[in-house]
Specification:
The structure holds two protein chains of two kinds.
Chain A lengths: L5 H7 L12 H4 L2 E6 L4 E5 L9 H14 L4 E5 L12 H9 L2 E2 L27 E5 L7 E6 L5 E5 L3
Parallel strand pairs in A: 2-3, 4-7
Antiparallel strand pairs in A: 1-2, 5-6, 6-7
Chain B lengths: L2 H26 L8 H28 L6 H6 L10 H4 L5 H25 L3 H29 L3 H14 L3 H4 L4 H8 L10 H14 L21 H10 L1 H5 L6
The chains are: A alpha/beta, B mainly alpha.
Amino acid sequence: MEKGTEKAWDVLKDLTDPELPFLTLDDLGVIREIKRNDKNHVVTIAPTYIGCPAISVIEEKIASELKKIGISAIIEKSFSPPWSSDWISENGRKKMEKFGISPPHPRKADTVGEPLLKDVKCPQCTSYRTEKVSEFGSTACKSLYRCLDCKEPFDHFKCV
Amino acid sequence: MKSNMADMVFEGLLRIADDNLILGHRTSEWCGHAPTLEEDLALPNIALDLIGHAQTLYCLACEINSRYKNEDQLAFLRLEHEYKNLLLVEQENGDFGNTVLRLFYFSTFMKYFWEKVKIECCYTKLKEFSEKAFLETSYHSKYASQWVVTLGDGTDESNLKMSNAIANLEPFLGELFNNDDFTEMCSQNDFLPEPTSIFDSWKNEVKGILQKGNLNFPDIILKKRGGRKGEHSEAFGYLLSDLQYMQRAYPNSSW
């Protein structure tokens, strides 16, 4: 973070994600950088998915929250390095599990989103006897699983 | 950017963006019609990714060509002959097998395409974008390949339907790998890879998956083409009338 952007960061660190409202953008690692130029703050965000429909909402939210404290902001999207589920904070992972979403495993080095571990834990009953139902869940960032012990379906955050 | 370079980059972005937009639109037609709830989530999610790729590329194209003020104008307000997508992506969906086979062909192609852009492209914004696009198209390719194997290696009926899908899409594969003067210029300027340079990797992967599904790899020779010049098949007119309806009926409407 650049000097003189602390005030902006104070506001942005608590903003929540529109699709996962129990997580902050900071938990997800979406806000990458805040810089200042002569007139504006430049906030760089890394979209979780290129076509993520929440992106425009996130951009508007950031701009309007900063405007409230008198800061005009330009929001820039960055795809390099691409957002990775490894950027989700420890705290974010805990919150996810509490809200019934199984958090992503760390990514195996040099792979295309291949998880380090194969076993996915059921967020309801903590059993590891689970199976994948579909590569895609309710949003682009999740896949659909079911637990073979408690029989409950659940979302698993994809490892990317 | 010099003006002849700008023309090249604009046209190149348009080709890729149009492929993604049109296949995204076709894929979105499955919303509410897929055979199971899981696929009804998967296909629109993939459509969203494809349309997202198109949107980002159209935005880059607008930065280069001031004739177009935003991405919506490029997506929704051009005439039929101004779209430069492949004939492959505009064909009707057919059955579920035909849909996943086309998605498998296209996303596997794009996966290797982005992998090359990531290494070779001199246009920084596209190079950066390719890192993310590579990850997403890899996921689509994996998803679609699983269905190709499952259906090919399923029942007699599902195998027959997949064989029909292979025959049905075969005439459109030549265009996917067709080099023309434009692709040669893009490659000489380190902008985009030649389609033929992707063929071997694509063939190896596709052949392997088809074999697993007891399916035969098709003959790939140039049969039907025209999309890159804006000469489209009959199906495209109907697609555009759906795609453009809102912007034509309510000009400049937005969310």
